[in-house]
Specification:
With 253 residues, this protein is an alpha/beta fold. The chain is 41% helix and 13% strand. The chain contains ten helices and seven strands. Strands 1, 2, 3, 6 and 7 form a five-stranded parallel sheet that branches. A two-stranded antiparallel ribbon has the order 4-5. Helix 9 links the parallel strand 6 and strand 7. The chain starts with a helix and ends with a helix. Bound molecules: zinc ion (2 copies).
Length: 253
Amino acid sequence: MGMLDELKENMGDLLFPRRCPLCGAVINRNERICSKCSKDVEFIRRPICRICGRPLYSCSCRRGDFAFVRNVSPLVYTKAAKRGIHRMKFNNAPSSCTYFGKLMANVVLSEYIDIGIDFDCVIGVPMYAEDYRRRGYNQATLLAKTVAEEIEVPHYVNVLVKYRKNRPQHTLSFQERQSNIRGVYRVARPEAVRGCVVLLCDDVTTSGSTLNECAETLLDAGARAVYCVTATVAVMSEMPAIKAAAFNAAWGF
Ligand SMILES: [Zn+2]
Ligand SMILES: [Zn+2]
């Protein structure tokens, strides 16, 4: 690199410093995330539950629990991931969206596309129109857009819609979440999803109720199958000692 180019680049860094996509701290050119976040960020490693996408030690789901075939996620919902999701939701930070979206696309490639699953469209979990107007954008749609671009599959907007307002899922117990989400979505243009294999995107999954309800709605409208990808999955913060022992024994640790 010539001296002038280097000077230009340094000037650019001064005017528009690179920021950690998770917390917004200024980072060096050779860093993807800041050192504080990199200590806390947790990539999901095998063995992974082939239904909900959690690390196996923290999963308690059974086949038949969900209408979607499977969910996959690159990251555990740790403090750093939470900061990134929050930044994406409330600070309109496109770099956070790109960070999560690219990680999601990688896991979609390795877990779905590489084993021969062909997607017809990518759809983000929709927001209620009034909430969308207030915030100005929907983080699940932005993630879906990034994933769709990365895997070169069409991104559908305004096909799956949320037409009823409900209480925020995170304020409710696991049992309440299922009834709270029932019947809040519908497919505005069923002909768009009929016979399609859909990739459904969201930022975080906890109980899986939201993904499940969206998947059921899409299947009722004629979709052939629904696979999910979320930026993060919430796992129990501490695994019970007894479960840890059984896990270690099963996997030879
Ligand atoms: Zn950071
Ligand atoms: Zn599971």
